[in-house]
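User: I'll paste a sequence; please echo it back and then give the predicted structure.

Assistant: Echoing your sequence first, then the prediction.
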Amino acid sequence: MAGLSFPKKLLVLPVSMAKKTDFLWPRQPTWCPGCGNFLTWQTLAQTLADLGLEPAATVITYDIGCSGNMGNFLRTSAFLGLHGRAIPLAVGIKQARLDLTVLAIGGDGGFLAEGTNHLLHAARRNDDITVLLVNNHLFSLTTGQATPTTPKNLLSKTSQLFRQAQLLNALALALVSGASFVARAFVGQSNYGAILAAAIQHRGFSLVEILSPCVTFDPVYTFGWYRQHTRLLAKPLADRRQALLKAEEQTPLWTGIFYQG
């Protein structure tokens, strides 16, 4: 955000020698076989190691939901919060400890239903945290109810109640609220880790919407569907308005870094 500067970090940490395995607990996650969260779990661990971060100096706050289960398998400092409340937890931790790298991980239900207000205000304030919004279009942990991102052609246990509802666009919400870094990634694309790294390194509020297929309750938006319908932006757009227009396009569905201010 223009004119907003951040104080220097309170503590200069030594260069990390941590490896990917240092960020992984020695047990396998309990997601459904083939779940997109496996790729996020592995890619994020590799990215944190590549950035030279230490597990103890990296804090991740987790929302309730399938993606929140990652807190049991990713080895960093962590806080598992209430549904929709992972972002304010991350903001508070960052304000108390500027020297820490702070991320918040949650789903489209937690961050765009119960916690929408927290997402908007953290973006507006340009809080120096990274928000990873894992979008599988459903409340999958509770067996597949509709969320604010459930498309009209995806039938769920409750979607018939919301057939005419306007879907929430996470990128558009973040952009109009003032977020200084906005990106979208598909878990199956080769530059997924590079997008995560850019978001974590950015000083200010970063949002990455992660397209993550639910292999159990979503027969439409599969890995194959995303590979066929997504296209990668060559570079960030020149300004926020252009980024907003591109974020609202659905055919193709663009991935990459939309805006970095």
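The helical segments are 37-50, 86-96, 108-114, 116-125, 170-177, 192-201, 223-229, 240-247. The two ends are 7 Å apart (CA to CA).
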